[in-house]
Amino acid sequence: MAEAGKKRPRPVPVPTSITRPFWDAAKQGKLVLQHCRRCGTWQYWPRPVCIRCISRDLEWREAAGRGVVYSFTVTRLPAEGFEGHEPYVLVSVDLPEGTRMMAHLVNCPIERVRIGMPVRVVWEKLTEEITLPQFEPAA
Question: Are 32 and 24 contacting, i.e. CB atoms less than 8 angstroms apart?
Fold first, then answer.
């Protein structure tokens, strides 16, 4: 466990052959989602097949990068690897593409977080290879 108040480096995602396009786009400040060419379904998190029709005919499309808070939780007892970062807010965001994404909410006092709050994607560079999408209140 980390010393009280001392931040540890956060865990870093490890790209796979399926998630590599997502992380490559994130490195460029672009939020991309999988889109099924067969049935038109958008999906997040990346998978090898469409969650609706099981087609493998998926493409990556740039998303709007905005959404609305569907749900949130304030984390005061951190998961392993997040010691020293607490308290932090995790949000579930409804994206206009029709899917939902979970991420950290940043640049917002805890007492101002609300369900239905408009948010936009922002980026945190963790390493040279990994840039993490997060959300902040929309202006």
Answer: no
Q: Which residues contact 105 (CB under 8 A, 6 or more apart)?
A: 69, 72, 89, 90, 91, 113, 119, 134, 135, 136
6 part of a folded domain: no
Instruction: Examine residue 87 and say whether the peptide bond preceding it is cis (omega within 30 degrees of 0).
Output: yes
Domain assignment of residue 14, yes or no: no
pTM for this model (two decimals)? 0.90
Instruction: Say how far apart CA 94 and CA 67 lie, in whole Å.
Output: 5
Contacts of 82 (CB under 8 A, 6+ apart): 8, 10, 11, 75, 88
CB atoms within 10 A of CB 113: 17
In a domain, 2, yes or no: no
User: What amino acid is encoded at 5 in this protein?
Assistant: G
Instruction: Report strand pairing: 66-75 vs 88-94.
Output: antiparallel
- Per-residue pLDDT of 68-115, as tens digits, reads 999 999 999 988 888 888 999 999 999 999 999 999 999 999 999 999
Asked whether the beta carbons of 38 and 77 are under 8 A apart, the reply is no
